[in-house]
Amino acid sequence: MLARLVLLGAGGDLTERLLLPALASLVQAGAAPPGFQVIGVGRVDLDDEQFARQCEEALAEFAPDLPLRSRRQLLDGISYVRADVTDSAELSKALPDGEACAVYLALPNAVFLPTCRALAEVGLAQGSVLVVEKPFGTSLDSARELNEAVVAVVPEERVFRVDHFLAMQTVVNLLGLRFANRVLEPLWSRDHVERVDVVFDETLALEGRAGYYDRAGALVDMLQNHLLQVLALVAMEPPTSLDEHDLRDRKVQLLRKVRAPEPSQMATRTVRGRYTAGAVGGRALQAYVDEDGVDRDRGTETYAEVWFEVDNPRWAGVPFVLRSGKALADDRQEVVVTFRAAEGSPFAGPVAPNRLRLGMLPDSVRLALNVNGPGDPFDLEAAELALPLPQRALSAYALLLKAVLLADPTLSIRGDEAEQCWRIVAPVLAAWSDGSVPLLDYPAGSDGPAQAE
Fold first, then answer.
1. 243-286, pLDDT tens digit by residue?
2. Same domain, 214 and 285
3. Is residue 403 assigned to a domain?
4. Catalytic center residues
């Protein structure tokens, strides 16, 4: 288990809001290695004590429920090096001399490429791993270029392209539900499934993320990586094992078969929208274009919906509808598998289809069924079997960091996966950029654009 973690971009929001709390929770759970040390690297001129104090304040704000003892134990192993991460001479001062470590690029994606090239010049000790946050590139070509730079630093099996969705409890539970329950797996095909929805609706608005979000938009921020990864786990063929090679091979095989709408279908099978002024939960929100740091002429969408298809015998003709939006009326994060309605029913009138709902936040499993109610014995009523899942001790980011320290890339994205995800969304991005699909307005606090599903 690696005992050194080098955080490049140690003063950023990602480090303070997510990584430090996750590391402290690993310490609390006894999952950090003995003598664990964190080396923060940034351009701000700080000494070890000042950096530790900054980390202490971040933990107090973002991890107040963790015991003070665990937070202090993490802080005892923290140090700081001032360096330009794109300068190999400066970067070399921050790396443990001759000792394997995990190097985490908690940086703006614009500097991933020069940082990887600097790391390749310096050279990492054998056994080291490299962690790269999303977005991995900005297009298929840039993802390929970044892949080449990454594997020049460490071998592919030592690369962690982070997608924290892959460590979310419900997402991981897709494997157990599909492949360990005979009652489901025989039904998991076009013969029995009518459609699949992967939804991540948020009441949150921009929340100060204009620097990144206005250049990405909902399609790149959510569908291109997170939701396509969920689609892959829902639709892939059964792996022969949960070994990282077998599992990730199956995901790539599936992603190669995912097809975006044809150009003639873009206006009817994709929706892009942007919120205007409104109110969410009693909180007034200004229009997206009036948020600080937003370029109103860029045309960035805050709502994205796309109907994809999987071109293989198991799923031919079944729509996989991926959608995500900000400043919506309700938080709704779930996978919904809608089964075909029962055929030849003796009951009068239509029979509602069964739906399996896998909630992500909070984690839950619900199955909608038709039953005979307490009234007329021949009348059907809707019923639901619900199973809330107990909260795990470790967050998704803590589980991913644990896997990083164990050098186990099973729940990270492989290079060919990252490229396939860009291939899939490229036609949609092209159609949206050339104006083939209009940018629709929707009031903050609504259900999204009127044309949405």
1. 889 999 999 999 999 999 999 999 999 999 999 999 998 899 99
2. yes
3. no
4. 226
CA 193/CA 58 separation, integer angstroms: 46
| DSSP string for residues in 38-100 | EEEEESS---HHHHHHHHHHHHHHH-TTS-HHHHHHHHHTEEEEE--TT-HHHHGGGS-TT--
Beta bridge partners, 413, equal 161
- Assigned domain for 362 exists: yes
pTM to 2 decimal places: 0.92
CB of 126 closer than 8 Å to CB of 156? no
- CA dist 218 and 301 (Å) reads 6
Beta-carbon contacts of 352 under 8 Å, excluding residues fewer than 6 positions away, are 341, 368, 370, 380, 382
Alpha-helical segments (H) within 291-441: 396-405, 415-433
Residue 45 within any structural domain of the chain: yes
Whether the CB-CB separation of 129 and 154 falls below 8 Å is answered with: yes
Token representation of residue 344: 């030849």
Same domain, 214 and 99: no
- Picking from 219, 426, 425, 428, the residue whose alpha carbon sits closest to that of residue 304 is 219
Q: How many domains does the chain have?
A: 2
Is 147 within a domain?
A: no
